[in-house]
Backbone:
């Protein structure tokens, strides 16, 4: 997501609308669940990192792989972690966090998660399903009025990217954000309003196309079902139980007081160009930031379903290939699979991120880079992840 690239981007038109599609691939309701008391998840222990360091030879291979991939794609800076139970831990930082001011990447920096945020949002929805507060068979019109086909689109279809509803990254949004008021702080209702009443892209369930509006609509479901603002529900139900103290949902970027990198994208000519910093354009589809170790914790929690009932996690993982969207082998509900690794990636406005866990071995990989919209269309963090997973798997043979 800088909002995520999708097949539907062509509908945005030229100029700023093309920029939006490559950069942004990130109502009232009568829901009877709005006053249901918050039910916190059962106590869960924060997963511990494997003790010790990975073997020197493996560390060298991992280091070289990251450096070679960064050079290939022109990535200015990165933070990377690999954790393998029974073998150890390796984390490292690379390159520049801020080119103009010659600031190197620091291990303590927070990084935008972009679309990894979607995995948190869908987890909140599935927790509410486990509690009996909502059902995946509920239609979105019970929570948000004005969605085209809202009486047919289920929460399951939104979470699995099969809803067919229009995205919010349309011409009206592009005009508002890129032209009228780039610094505007968009609320969740603002973002959803851009897609309300717009023609559907396809009939519910007919295709599987990655769409940011799907998840922002689910963010509103969370608010209506819990009676809390999205950020409060997220903090109480996931961040606090997991001890994710360095992970935040941020709408107003002026409140982002932790050290963090500058995001870059290639320009038509000349050096890399710093990208917009407005985090509010993403909402529950992509407005979170985190660190390497919190990313490790989320990778394992997400892939193992530690916050969900076993049956719910099994249903979550029952996915299929996307007809259009990011490079997963298959996509379930707010989670993707690549080569036996489960997790999520994200892209948008100068950053890419990838966060995956392999349940069979317990290994986890987290990659953050400060480059988006690479000229060949490659997702830099996903490329690093894929190559690191190959190093690990070859080393195990």
Residues:
């Amino acid at each position: 997501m800088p909002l995520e690239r999708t097949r539907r981007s062509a509908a945005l038109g030229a100029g700023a609308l093309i920029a939006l599609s490559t950069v942004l691939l990130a109502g009232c309701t009568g829901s009877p669940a709005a006053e249901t008391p918050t039910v916190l998840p059962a106590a869960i222990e924060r997963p511990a990192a494997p003790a010790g360091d990975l073997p020197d030879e493996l560390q060298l291979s991992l280091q070289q792989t990251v450096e070679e991939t960064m050079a290939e794609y022109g990535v200015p800076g990165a933070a990377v972690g690999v954790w393998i139970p029974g073998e150890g831990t390796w984390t490292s930082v690379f390159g520049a966090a801020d080119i103009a001011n010659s600031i190197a990447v620091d291990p303590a920096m927070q990084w935008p998660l972009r679309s990894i945020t979607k995995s948190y949002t869908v987890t909140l929805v599935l927790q509410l399903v486990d509690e009996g507060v909502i059902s995946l068979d509920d239609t979105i019109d019970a929570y948000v009025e004005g969605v085209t086909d809202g009486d047919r689109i289920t929460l399951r279809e939104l979470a699995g990217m099969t809803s067919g509803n229009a995205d919010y990254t349309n011409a009206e949004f592009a005009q508002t954000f890129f032209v009228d008021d780039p610094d505007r702080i968009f609320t969740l209702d603002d973002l959803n309003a851009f897609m309300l009443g717009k023609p559907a892209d396809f009939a519910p369930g007919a295709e599987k196309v990655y769409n940011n509006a799907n998840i922002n609509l689910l963010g509103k479901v969370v608010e209506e079902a819990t009676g809390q603002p999205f950020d409060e529900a997220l903090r109480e139900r996931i961040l606090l139980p997991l001890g994710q103290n360095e992970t935040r949902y941020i709408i107003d970027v002026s409140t982002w007081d932790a050290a963090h990198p500058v995001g870059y994208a290639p320009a038509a000519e000349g050096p890399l160009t710093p990208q917009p910093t407005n985090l509010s354009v993403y909402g529950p589809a992509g407005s979170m930031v985190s660190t390497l170790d919190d990313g490790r914790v989320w990778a394992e929690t997400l892939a193992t379903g530690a916050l969900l009932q076993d049956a719910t996690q099994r249903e979550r993982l029952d996915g299929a290939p996307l007809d259009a969207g990011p490079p997963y082998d298959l996509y379930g509900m707010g989670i993707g699979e690549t080569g036996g690794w489960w997790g999520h990636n994200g892209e948008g406005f100068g950053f890419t991120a990838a966060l995956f866990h392999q349940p069979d071995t317990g290994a986890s990989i987290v990659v953050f880079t400060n480059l988006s919209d690479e000229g060949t269309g490659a997702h830099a963090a996903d490329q690093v992840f894929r190559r690191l997973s190959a190093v690990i798997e070859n080393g195990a043979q």
Observations:
- The chain is about 30% helix and 15% strand.
